[in-house]
Design a protein that fits this description.
Blueprint: H1 22-27, H2 30-33, H3 37-69, H4 74-123, H5 126-131, H6 134-153, H7 155-176, H8 178-185, H9 188-225, H10 227-232, H11 236-288, H12 294-306, H13 308-335, E1 359-366, E2 379-386, E3 391-396, H14 402-408, E4 417-422, E5 425-426, H15 432-438, E6 439-442, H16 453-458, H17 467-476, H18 502-514, E7 520-524, H19 532-547, E8 550-554, H20 558-561, E9 566-571, E10 574-579, H21 581-587, H22 589-595, H23 599-602
Parallel strand pairs: 3-8, 3-9, 6-7, 7-8
Antiparallel strand pairs: 1-2, 1-4, 4-5, 9-10
Bound molecules: adenosine-5'-diphosphate and magnesium ion.
Length: 603
C-alpha cells in the first residue's frame, strides 16, 4: 500500500557484497563495450598522448631558464613562449578529440544496455515482478546506467591516463634529480594504503546509497500511481513523512560517502603537497650551493605541479569506479534472473485420445514460489474439464484462489505439479507465442496503456487486425461509449486508463480479450464494475462469442454465472462441486450461500 513506508527491498540484495572485486564486476561490461572498443582505446591513447604533451612543458621551461633567460636573450624567450603556446594548444586539441571520440559510442552503450534490461524485464516471469519493487527496477534502468556511462567516459580512461602520466612524470623527475624525486615519492605508500582501505568502505556505502535511491523511487512511483487513494484518505501527510524518512536516510548515506571521500581527498592532497614543499626547500638549498641549475629546479617543480591533478583526481576516480561497479552489480542482478523459457520440454507425442479436447486441468497443484514452505498450497488436486465450446463459470469465496487458477492458463505462473492441457496438448509444451495466440485473458483489474483506445483493444489481436475486428470487439463488450469520445477510437487513454470509469476500462479489457477471436477465453470477473443493465447487454453479446469459444469465467453474480453452461465451485483450494447453476443451488449449501442475496436477480 502506498501509505506504508516502503522499505521494500528486493530479496536478492545483500549487505555482504563487498567481498567482490570491483574489477571483476566491471569486466562483465565487456560484451557491451566490445563494439566500441576501438574508439575507446584510441580515445585512451589520445588522452595519454595529450597528458604526455603536457609533461613536455616543464622541459621547455627548463631549457628557457637555463638558456635564453640566463643569457638574457629576448628572442630565445619569445621562441620558448611560442613552443609553450603550441604545446598547450596541442594538449587542448587532443583532449577535445578524446571527448569527440567517446561521446557518441558511449551513449550507444548506455542505450543498448537499457534496451537489454527492458527486454529482459518483459521476459521475466510474473513471480519475479511480484518480488521486486518497481522503483528498484526503475533506478537500475536510469541512475545506475548513467553511472556506468560516466564511468566508461571518465574514470576508465583517466585512471589509465593518470597512471601513465604519474609514472612518466616521476621518471622525468628522477632523471632531473633523483634525491628530490625520492622526496616526492615519499607519500606514495601511505596514499596507496589509504586508497585501498577507503575503497572497501566506500563500496559498501555506495551500494547502500544506490539501493536507497531504488526505495525512494518506489515510494515516489507508488504515490504518483496511488494519488487518488492518498488524497481520498487524506494520507498525504503520512506519505510525505515516509518519503522524508527515506530521503533523510539517503541523505545520511550520501553524507557518509562525502565524509569518506573527504578523508581520502585530504590524504591524497595534503601528503604530496607537503612533499612538494620539502622538495622546494631542499632544491632551493641545492641551487644556492650550486649543486643544481635553476632550470632543473623549475622543471622539477613544474613537473611535480603538473602531477598534482592526476594524483588528486585518483580519489574520486576510484570512488566513481566503485559506484560503477555497484551499478554493474545491480544491473546484472536483474539480468541474471532466469527469464521464462520460450518453450519447455520438447513436444512429446501427446496422448490425445477420446475426450481430451477443450481446456483440462489434471491434478493441478499450485503454491506461490515465495510462500512459506510449510503453508498449504493455494490450489490442490484441481481436476477440471471444460469441453470444447463450453463455458464454465468459476465461483468461490474471496481468496479461494480463483484469480490464481485463471493465471495458470496463460502461464503467468507455473503449476507446482500436475498439468494443464489445451485440446490435449500440455501448455508447457507450447511456445509462449502459440499459447498466447490460443488463450486470451481479461482480469478484474483492467490495465490499459497510455495509447489510443483502439490500440489498447487491438493489443489482443494479430498485427493484421483492423477496424472491422475492432468494431466487432467493441460491440461485444458494449463499449460504444468509445465512439462518443473526442477522437473516437483514436482518443488517447491517460496513464493506466484513469481518465475512464472502472466499467469503461473493464469493457475495453473485455474487448481486448475477444478481439483476436481466441479459441480459449479466460475471464477473471471481468464484469464486476458494470451496472446490471450494461452487464446484461454485455452478456447477451458475449453469449454469441462464447458459443464457439471454450471459456473459463470467474463470476460472482448469478447473472454472470447463468452465461455459462456449467459452474465449478472452488473451495479450500479444491474443486468442491461441478454442475449447472440450478443443480448446485439445490445440492450445495456453500454455493447457495455464495449466491444468496443476489438470487432473485437470477430468476
Ligand atoms: N502473488 C502472490 N503471492 C503470494 N500469495 C498470493 C499471491 N496472490 C494471491 N496470493 C494468495 O493466494 C490466495 C488466493 O488468492 P486469489 O487467487 O487472488 O483469490 P480470489 O481471486 O479467489 O479472490 C490468497 O490467500 C492470496 O493471499
Ligand atoms: Mg480474484
Amino acid at each position: 500500500m502506498p501509505t506504508t513506508p516502503a522499505t521494500a527491498k528486493d530479496p536478492e540484495q545483500t549487505e555482504e557484497t563487498t567481498d567482490r572485486s570491483a574489477v571483476r564486476t566491471l569486466l562483465r561490461l565487456w560484451p557491451y563495450v566490445r563494439p566500441v572498443r576501438v574508439r575507446l582505446f584510441s580515445a585512451a591513447f589520445v588522452a595519454v598522448l595529450a597528458s604526455c604533451v603536457g609533461l613536455v612543458i616543464p622541459l621547455v621551461l627548463k631549457w628557457m631558464v637555463d638558456g635564453p633567460v640566463a643569457d638574457r636573450d629576448p628572442a630565445g624567450v619569445w621562441l620558448g613562449a611560442l613552443y609553450l603556446l603550441l604545446l598547450g594548444f596541442a594538449e587542448a586539441l587532443l583532449f577535445g578529440l578524446r571527448r569527440w571520440l567517446v561521446a557518441r559510442p558511449l551513449a550507444g552503450v548506455e542505450a543498448a544496455m537499457r534496451a537489454d534490461l527492458y527486454r529482459h524485464l518483459q521476459r521475466l516471469p510474473v513471480a519475479f515482478h511480484d518480488r521486486w519493487a518497481s522503483g528498484q527496477l526503475l533506478s537500475r534502468g536510469t541512475t545506475d546506467l548513467m553511472l556506468l556511462r560516466m564511468f566508461l567516459a571518465f574514470p576508465l580512461t583517466f585512471l589509465l591516463v593518470n597512471g601513465v602520466t604519474i609514472v612518466v612524470g616521476v621518471i622525468i623527475m628522477l632523471l632531473q634529480d633523483w634525491s628530490l624525486g625520492l622526496v616526492i615519492l615519499g607519500p606514495a605508500i601511505p596514499v596507496m594504503v589509504t586508497c585501498v582501505v577507503f575503497e572497501k568502505r566506500y563500496a559498501k556505502v555506495a551500494r547502500r546509497a544506490q539501493d536507497q535511491v531504488g526505495d525512494l523511487t518506489t515510494v515516489v512511483e507508488e504515490s504518483v500511481l496511488g494519488i487518488r487513494i492518498i488524497k481520498g484518505f487524506g494520507r498525504h501527510r503520512s506519505q510525505a513523512r515516509a518519503f522524508r524518512e527515506l530521503s533523510r536516510t539517503l541523505r545520511g548515506t550520501e553524507l557518509r560517502k562525502a565524509g569518506l571521500l573527504a578523508t581520502i581527498w585530504g590524504v591524497i592532497v595534503t601528503l604530496p603537497e607537503v612533499a612538494i614543499g620539502a622538495a622546494l626547500v631542499l632544491g632551493a638549498v641545492q641551487v644556492a650551493d650550486g649543486e643544481l641549475s635553476a632550470g632543473t629546479l623549475v622543471a622539477f617543480l613544474s613537473t611535480a605541479l603538473a602531477l598534482r591533478w592526476p594524483v588528486d583526481s585518483i580519489g574520486f576516480l576510484l570512488a566513481m569506479s566503485q559506484e560503477a561497479a555497484t551499478a554493474t552489480e545491480r544491473y546484472f542482478e536483474v539480468m541474471d534472473q532466469e527469464p521464462e523459457e520460450p518453450t519447455a520440454a520438447p513436444a512429446t507425442a501427446t496422448t490425445a485420445v477420446g475426450d481430451s479436447s477443450g481446456l483440462q486441468f489434471h491434478d493441478v497443484r499450485f503454491r506461490y514460489p515465495d510462500a512459506p514452505k510449510d503453508s498449504p498450497p493455494v490450489l490442490d488436486h484441481i481436476d477440471l474439464h471444460i469441453r470444447p465450446g463450453e463455458s464454465m463459470a468459476l465461483v468461490g469465496a474471496t481468496g479461494s484462489g480463483k484469480t490464481t487458477l485463471t493465471a495458470l492458463v496463460p502461464r503467468l505462473h507455473e503449476v507446482t505439479s500436475g498439468r494443464i492441457t489445451l485440446d490435449g496438448e500440455d501448455i508447457t509444451h507450447m511456445s509462449r507465442e502459440e499459447l498466447r495466440s490460443k488463450v486470451a485473458v481479461a482480469f478484474e483489474e483492467p490495465t490499459l496503456f497510455s495509447a489510443a483506445v483502439g490500440d489498447n483493444v487491438l493489443m489482443g489481436a494479430e498485427d493484421t487486425a483492423g477496424t472491422a475486428e475492432l468494431r466487432r470487439a467493441l460491440a461485444v463488450a458494449q463499449a460504444d461509449f468509445v465512439y462518443a469520445l473526442p477522437q473516437g477510437t483514436d482518443t488517447q487513454v491517460g496513464e493506466q486508463g484513469h481518465s475512464l470509469s472502472g466499467g469503461q476500462r473493464q469493457r475495453l479489457a473485455l474487448a481486448r480479450a475477444v478481439v483476436g477471436r481466441p479459441r480459449f477465453l479466460v475471464l477473471d470477473d471481468p464484469l464486476s464494475a458494470l451496472d446490471v443493465h450494461t452487464e446484461a447487454a454485455v452478456e447477451a453479446a458475449l453469449r454469441d462469442v462464447l458459443a464457439d469459444t471454450t471459456a473459463l469465467i470467474v463470476a460472482h453474480r448469478p447473472s454472470t454465472v447463468l452465461l455459462a453452461d456449467r459452474v465449478a465451485l472452488l473451495s479450500g483450494g479444491r474443486i468442491a462441486a461441478v454442475g449447472t447453476h440450478h443443480e448446485l443451488l439445490r445440492t450445495n449449501a456453500e454455493y447457495a450461500h455464495l449466491m444468496a442475496g443476489t438470487e432473485e436477480a437470477a430468476r
